[in-house]
Amino acid sequence: MLTDNPVVPMILVVEDDENHADLIRRSLGRALDEYRLERVGTLGAARSIMDQQLPDLVLADFRLPDGEGSELLTTAKGICPVVLMTSQGNEQLAVDILKGGAQDYVAKSPAAFAAMPRVVQRILHEWVLIQGKKRAEELLKVHQINLELQNKELLRVQAELELLHKSLEARVAEMVADLRRKDLALIQQNRQAAMGEMIGHIAHQWRQPLNTISLIVQNVQGEFDSGTLTGDDVHHDVHEIMEILLHMSRTIDDFRNFFREDKEKCPFLLSTAVSSALALVSASLKNNNIRVEIAGDTTVTATGYQNEYAQVLLNILSNSRDAGIEHSVSEPLISVSIVQENGSAVLYIRDNCGGIPDDILPKIFDPYFTTRGLDKGTGVGLHMSRTIIEQNMGGRLSARNVDGGAEFRIEVPS
């Protein structure tokens, strides 16, 4: 009878001769005590046991009352090894037994019974090796099939990406052209499009340069009407407008590079980035009587992307300017301080323009969050700024309220 523990390794002995069964039990029991020997006398009983528990090896007599032990080869094929025992010394029979799928055969003799433990141990070892090899081959086939499927999928994805890339390039060119005419309307129309967020960033960056150009043009008109416009003034104003337009043109490339992984970080002076950003808003700051003070170490160097860093400064400076206008500050001031802290390049931008309400402060870096109307902001500037500093440049951008205003701290690696 079977035991209640199917985990114990088992050798199934199919032998109807009690004497032979006893010899086998004594021979194997001493050498293979880790195995449980289960003995039956017929093919039917053997099949019944194999239905309940898979033996580690079947040791069967070739001649049984209800058939030949070789019939178990079909039942055990690929599941466990089968060794047939025969009292016939017929070599052809031995060849037929091995051809039929048996792992080995054993002659019924005292010497063979004595040597049976070695035979069984060898067969069990060989079976483990055979099954391991089969398993390895199966895994290799599965792996090869998976690789083929992955290669096909990669080719399909690559083709789709190429089509998408071409489509996106065409869409960006079309959107940028329309952006020049309908800045705010285009942002609203394309927010849900695949490139909507990128276009929103570009619109946010272009708004202030366009305002600066507008102020310069108005100034030229005023000087012309008053008769004070000189040739030098025209050359100066045209030069300034062309510089701003060049920056606006570079903004497109900057944002395209912003989504690429192959950009190279380069060292740059924080003071240079500050000057670049202030150049874009200088006319607007002057027009609104906003004073800017710059202090600190002008030799502090950062490692990253200077254009993107300057765009972050432009966002923050524009926010300070708008806050000063909104709160009607009598003597608005923006203070910029450049320092080296713990091996990092740090920039502080502080203003006295009223600060940020405490309930709004935690949300200012969220995408599309703005306290202004849709005609004054898209809510992407500070979100984009944090992404540039923290994800692209490995730094940190934070904000807090100070006496009478807000302070932004930008830290990037040196």
**Highest-level CATH class of the largest domain:** Alpha Beta
Tally of distinct domains: 2
Q: What is the fold named in CATH at topology level of the largest domain?
A: Heat Shock Protein 90
The name of the CATH superfamily of the largest domain reads Histidine kinase-like ATPase, C-terminal domain
Compressed to H and E, one letter per element, the order equals: EHEHEEEHEHEHHHHEHEEHEEHEE
By helix and strand content, what is the structural category?
alpha/beta
Q: Helical content, roughly?
A: 55-70%
Note the total helix count: 11
Largest sheet, in brief, is: 5 strands, parallel
Q: Can you tell me the overall shape? A: rod-shaped
Biggest sheet, strands in spatial order? 2-1-3-6-7
Residue stretches low in confidence (pLDDT < 50, at least 5 long) are 1-5, 183-194
What is the terminal separation in angstroms?
Answer: 79 Å
Mean pLDDT: 82
CATH architectural designation of the largest domain: 2-Layer Sandwich
Overview of this protein structure:
Helices cover 55% and strands 18% of the residues. The chain has 414 residues and is α/β, with parallel strands linked by helices. It has eleven helices and 14 strands. The protein starts with 9 loop residues before the first strand and ends with a strand. The protein is rod-shaped and about 130 Å long. The strands form four sheets. A five-stranded parallel beta sheet has the order 2-1-3-6-7, sandwiched between helices. It folds into two domains: 10-137, 3-Layer(aba) Sandwich (Rossmann fold); 184-413, Histidine kinase-like ATPase, C-terminal domain (Heat Shock Protein 90), CATH 3.30.565.
